[in-house]
Amino acid sequence: MVGNHIKVTLRQMARNKTFSVVNLLGLTTGMAVCLLFAQFVWFEWSFDRFGKNADRTYRVNLYNTANGVFDNISSDVVSGLAYDIKHDIPGIEAIARVSTKTVAIVANKKLQLEDQENDIVFADPSIIDLLAIDLIRGNKDIALPNQHSIIVSESMSLKYFGTVDVMGKVIQIGFNNGSTELKSYEIRGVFHDIPTNSHQHFSLILAPENTQEWNENWAWSNVYTYLRLSDKTSLADLDDKLAQIVKRHHKDALGDRYLLEPITDIRLHALDGSGRASLVNFFIVLGIVILFLAWFNYINLSIARFFEKLKEVGLRKLIGASRGQLIL
Known about the structure:
The structure is a single chain. The chain is α+β, with helices and mostly antiparallel strands. The chain has helices spanning 2-15, 17-45, 80-88, 127-130, 154-161, 211-216, 235-249, 266-269, 277-303, 306-318, 323-327; strands at residues 57-66, 69-74, 77-78, 92-99, 102-108, 113-122, 135-137, 149-153, 170-175, 183-191, 204-206, 221-229, 257-262. 41% of the residues lie in helices and 26% in strands. The strands form 2 sheets. Strands 1, 2, 3, 4, 12 and 13 form a 6-stranded antiparallel sheet that branches. A 6-stranded mixed barrel has the order 5-6-11-8-10-9. Strand 1 and strand 2 form a beta hairpin. Helix 1 crosses helix 2 (17-45) and helix 2 (17-45) runs antiparallel to helix 9 (277-303).
């Protein structure tokens, strides 16, 4: 029976080439487009969900006001904030700062390799744990012991050394501060390249040049601050403590407050307005519309051959096909 169905189908397609091409091409194209849209939506939704503690990890945002009137929400905050949170607020399991990316000359003098890199950051060692950075070499607890140490990505390690076995080796970095003097840094860790579905991407991590300045800085916003709450701590528990920090340091900005944003929301629903939820929702709706149009078109064209199909069913019944075989 199955063989007969295949033969009949092939004969019908051969007799109605235009109809068959239009019908099948319309359906398969519509479904293929929907699958591509679904893959895009799933990728966008997956951002920052690969860490085992992602559900308890947050980015700190500043709700800015001017003369008591809302101005904007900024994800860049002062580095001194993390120091105050760590010492004044209980229930914080981990906290870390990472600077905005900077440009520098990176070199391996022994191999005479030199290039400009634009994804270098300064960060607290705990950023490895908070952003679920996967170390290939090194110990995350002692990865950045001083300002002369550095952690590099797998791609940077291969680019400048040709191997990931670079623990203890020296790499030179020169920041463009007028002289571009190259300073030596000891490699204390190598990490897998940060996944594409992460909102943060960098290849070289250095310790802060002056930790005391970072802890005391309340003058300019130059870092992103991340924290992880303990299991028993809720966001409501932190509101009063954060408000006290605002009163202590934001004396000229009435109405300012700090907002905790789940890192799993940053890609789609970022508080600073950079979220892509509207784009993702557009593709979801568009995919559903395309899929239903493809189905509708296929069914309409199939109904157009209804009477021809009736004759086929009649002949099958005549030669002894059962009801189940006809339905199949």
